[in-house]
């Protein structure tokens, strides 16, 4: 059979796997104009769906941006900055200016120092080799922070195209929909958003008569914890409402378990309070350090939940990372879960799934 390509995004049409790009039901092959499920849902339901590509596919597509004159909008998850950061993005996008968007700000405790968070995001992006023009904190779900972000995007793009990039599960699709609904200035922008011959793998959305917003496929970063959990567990570890801090007074040689996904060992230091910022639904348990191994083996998936049995089958083993916290208030960040705030001057060990890398930052609260 001759190859058929989507009239919307140009991807090759297939009828075998609805979770992969280019899927259509077999009955759709009889239509005169064929668009893939992803474009269909964008056109009719205002939904932008992520599809999985290999790393090489993604890098090849994103590298096309380096040959354009455009604005790049990079979306990251505030609760998983490292896991949702795309390495090498500067090289892939050329000299185009980049705006960094931290999503899910509505879930942070109100006492969070947002200015300090923005400065930390700028510095960390720079440490990764990415020069950003501005950083904004938004909630794609409710529109918080969009007034300033939208104004900056419109000014920076100067009637040029906009490419929105990000890993899967960072809220990129929700961000795009929010932005389209607020800023396109085009009546029924979604229903007119697909045109034959658009770039393979991108979805093209008109912003004005001469420029477009391009939704790029979400890249899969295997450092993200979310790729090892079931949808059910993901709902439990992903905050839905403002996080409520939980405080634990610990002496050295005590341990905290965050569900069965992470273990926090207070190895050495004076007694102090540890403030835990995680999904309100994630169970936290305290035990003695010398009993922690046995406690985990006996109770993971039971008292220590999530993970569910289905997630445990695919979850990498917990690996220990030991760090000394300087004598200042510090956040110990567990990517994909949350963070613990310490007054510092201590030694701790964190046990997290292999491949997940913890990080430290000045306390935001």
Descriptive overview:
This is CP-type G domain-containing protein. It holds the Pfam family MMR_HSR1. Residues 56-222 form the CP-type G domain. One of its GO terms (molecular function) is GTP binding. It comes from Gracilibacillus orientalis. The protein is 22% helix and 25% strand. The chain is an alpha+beta fold. The protein folds into two domains: 26-215, P-loop containing nucleotide triphosphate hydrolases (Rossmann fold); 227-362, no CATH class. A six-stranded mixed beta sheet has the order 3-2-1-4-6-5, sandwiched between helices. It is globular. It starts with 36 loop residues before the first helix and ends with a strand. The model is unreliable at 186-200 (pLDDT under 50).
Computed over alpha carbons, the radius of gyration is 22 Å
CATH topology of the largest domain: Rossmann fold
State the distance separating the first and last CA atoms.
60 Å
Query: Total number of β-strand segments?
Result: 16
Strand order of the largest sheet: 3-2-1-4-6-5
User: Unreliable stretches, pLDDT < 50, 5 or more residues?
Assistant: 186-200
The SSE string, one letter per element, is HHEHEHEHEHEEHEEEEEHHEEEEE
Overall pLDDT level: 87
How many structural domains can be distinguished in the coordinates?
2
Sheet with the most strands? 6 strands, mixed
Gross morphology is globular
Instruction: Work out the helix count.
Output: 9
Structural class: alpha+beta
CATH architecture verdict of the largest domain: 3-Layer(aba) Sandwich
CATH class of the largest domain: Alpha Beta
Q: What is the percent of helical residues?
A: 10-25%
User: What would CATH call the homologous superfamily of the largest domain?
Assistant: P-loop containing nucleotide triphosphate hydrolases
GO molecular function: GTP binding
Domain CP-type G: 56-222
Protein name: CP-type G domain-containing protein
Pfam families: MMR_HSR1, YqeH-like_C
């Amino acid at each position: 059979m001759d190859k058929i390509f989507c009239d919307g995004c140009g991807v090759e049409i297939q009828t075998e796997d609805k979770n992969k790009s280019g899927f259509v039901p077999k009955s759709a092959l009889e239509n005169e104009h064929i668009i893939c499920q992803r474009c269909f849902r964008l056109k009719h339901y205002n939904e932008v769906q992520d599809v999985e590509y290999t790393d090489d596919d993604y890098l090849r597509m994103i590298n096309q941006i380096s040959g354009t004159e455009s604005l790049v909008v990079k979306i990251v998850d505030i609760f998983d900055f490292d896991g949702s950061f795309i390495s090498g993005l500067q090289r892939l996008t050329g000299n185009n200016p980049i705006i960094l968007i931290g999503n899910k700000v509505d879930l942070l405790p109100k006492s969070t120092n947002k200015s300090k968070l923005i400065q930390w995001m700028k510095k960390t992006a720079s440490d990764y080799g990415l020069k950003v023009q501005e950083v904004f904190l938004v909630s794609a779900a409710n529109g918080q922070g969009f007034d300033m972000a939208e104004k900056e995007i419109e000014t920076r793009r100067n009637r040029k195209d906009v490419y929105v990039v990000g890993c899967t599960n960072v809220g990129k699709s929700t961000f795009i929909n929010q932005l389209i609904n607020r800023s396109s200035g085009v009546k029924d922008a979604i229903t007119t958003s697909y045109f034959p011959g658009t770039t393979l793998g991108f979805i093209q959305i008109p912003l004005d008569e001469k420029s477009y917003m391009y939704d790029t496929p979400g890249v899969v970063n295997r450092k993200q914890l979310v790729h090892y959990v079931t949808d059910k567990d993901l709902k439990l570890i992903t905050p839905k409402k403002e996080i409520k801090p939980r405080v634990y007074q610990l002496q050295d040689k005590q341990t905290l378990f965050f569900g069965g996904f992470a273990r926090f060992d207070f190895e050495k230091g004076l007694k102090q309070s540890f403030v835990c910022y995680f999904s309100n639904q994630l169970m936290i348990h305290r035990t003695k350090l010398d009993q922690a191994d046995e406690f985990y083996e006996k109770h993971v998936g039971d008292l220590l939940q999530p993970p569910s049995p289905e997630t445990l089958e695919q979850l990498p083993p917990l690996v220990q990372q030991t760090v000394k916290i300087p004598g200042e208030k510090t956040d110990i960040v567990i990517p994909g879960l949350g963070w613990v705030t310490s007054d510092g001057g201590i030694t701790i060990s964190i046990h997290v799934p292999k491949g997940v890398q913890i990080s430290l930052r000045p306390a935001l609260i």
